[in-house]
Amino acid sequence: MAIGFAIHKAKRKVSPDLVARYRTLPVANISDSMSRIAGTNRLRPMHAGGWLGGPALTVKTRPGDNLMVHKAIDLAQPGDVIVVDAGGVLVNAIVGEIMSTLAEKKGVAGFVIDGSIRDAGAIRAGSFPVLAAGVAHRGPYKDGPGEINCAISIDGMIVEPGDLIVADDDGVLCVPYDDAEAICKLTEAKKATEEKAIQQILAGTGDRRWVDEALQRLGCEFKD
């Protein structure tokens, strides 16, 4: 039995229709709807910017090794997001321009990598979404071990195969499969509330009384 070196069969994933609904929702609003404790702040967009969303195709690999990431590209279905737990180690790059080009050609939605990338200039100039923890010129090894379609942790963010991954210029979030519909509804309402607030600000009708009310409730003193 190969412990830690296996490819598991994916059993579920969020639907394309639900992914499309999330496309209109800022990650910040989704984060607010998840009590502001979800996700990671350490991974940043390495590409030119824009939205990323889709079901997670998870990879756990030995730090600095990308053999299983290559296999994940081969297994990926169009729209999948390849999410790589490389232990957060930044010494060796996990993907670069060649793998990003291959994944984009295959229809992969993007990469989320708890590790480094290289060919940063080429990736930054492109629109194919890549979020990672850092940049390193040293290339990867291709020896394994690793697993595909297993539970992983990205900077403390648990990702199960088929969970919804969403990312924009503010960062990346994992929305659990079982909660994705409910969180979508909460976020749609949150976005509508914020859009209304912006309209009120622009119209000069915003109500700012809550600031002084909060200060008074918290015991702030106004002194001469």
UniProtKB/TrEMBL annotation:
Mg(2+) binds at D119. It comes from Bradyrhizobium pachyrhizi. The lineage of its organism: Bacteria, Pseudomonadati, Pseudomonadota, Alphaproteobacteria, Hyphomicrobiales. Gene3D superfamilies: Ribonuclease E inhibitor RraA/RraA-like. Pfam families: RraA-like. This is Putative 4-hydroxy-4-methyl-2-oxoglutarate aldolase. Substrate binds at G96, E97, I98, M99, R118. GO terms for molecular function: metal ion binding. Keywords: Magnesium, Metal-binding. Its cofactor is Mg(2+); a divalent metal cation.
